[in-house]
Amino acid sequence: PEQILGRYPHQLSGGQQQRVMIAIALAGDPAVLIADEPTTALDVTIQATILDLLRDLQASRGTAIVFITHDMGVVAEIADRVAVMYKGDLVEIAPVYDLFANPQHPYTQGLLNCRPRPQQQLRRLPTVSDFMEVGSGTEAGKIVAKVRTEAEKAELLAEVSPHEIEQHRQTLVQQTPLLRVQNLTKAFPMRAGLFGKREEFRAVDAVSFEVYPGETLGLVGESGCGKSTLSRCLLRLIDPTSGLIEFDKQSVLDLDAEAMRRLRREMQIVFQNPYGSLDARQTIGAAIIEPMQIHGLGGTKAERQARAIHLLERVGLDASALRRMPHEFSGGQRQRICIARTLACEPKFIICDESVSALDVSVQAQVLNLLKDLQKDFKLTYIFISHDLSVVKFISDRIMVMNQGRVEEIGPAEEIYNTPKKPYTQKLIAAIPDAQLDDIRQRQRATADIHS
User: Fold this and answer.
1) For the ABC transporter domain, which residue ranges apply (predicted)?
2) Are residues 285 and 216 in the same domain?
């Protein structure tokens, strides 16, 4: 604690900053603590630490906590009771076990079903709209449960068989890799004090892997493990210190500026923050058409506009969005627009850098389904970076685990999740919030024992 007191905010990690904010909030010894999405941007191990800290503080101080989150797994881990809001209305409130075991409102049913479940491999994630609709007749204007046949319900929750997963994987690895990385290193110079010895910090340290055409490689690890630095090196947004990057049989590091500009049309990235990814002074149409103009795609002005409309429709938005500004859209809609803008370049390869982390669980399911559909339709290859291992397992063919700049483990998604070989991977898997009913009941009993 004494060391932290003398530091500035930029010198602390995300988890440390969040704990400082909790300390500030507790300084006045409050009776009620409102925690507004305190773990949303944190990786699973730091998230688990924050949840443990809040539980310990609650037990020792008797503080009531209002915990706001869109992560139903976190709700199962920490809540005693749950209140569900939809469009400003409180639609359901119940003890956490009762809500997870028997949700009453269609919106709650949708929320619980559209979160990725690591124990299953669904073909598609259900969305909230699959479970509710606006009623008619005597129920006009009300939200009612969508009536489905048993066959429709089964199709909604259809799983991919292990045989299909293995067959798809074998088809992928028989191809020539689209991306090949060997011994990639990115070191940043650092110095201890003004006259201290110059050293270096290796954010990426001798990383090697391959990505095959049509594959999704999931990239996971704790904050600061080098995921985002690696992604920026792959696109040469920053230059690596050493190593080899080969894309479509071209050595990326040997290309001059003009050749690299042409290659970037085929190598694109979707960033985490949809609010910062769009120019606030530029219409959505201009944002999507601009990449076509830069790379000489799309033909005439009318043809480019027609393609922009087609891309917007492909990501679930209509043509009226062309003339609107970014502030007129929600976070999920902005992320769809960013994806449409990326597709305007006709890329082969897209890095999704925490691109669903800022979205609530219902919008997240829509975007993940969209990414899968687009991959199939446009023959795309992804590197999908996330701190949410449940999301990574749903969308990935293989998963690569990074730790302190190095590759800790890489393998098929099912294998990494079910039988992780390295202790570090096992720790990440164990830290995933679990919404199993037996675990919720066990936690409730433990909490009751403490209070008694």
Assistant:
1) 179-429
2) yes
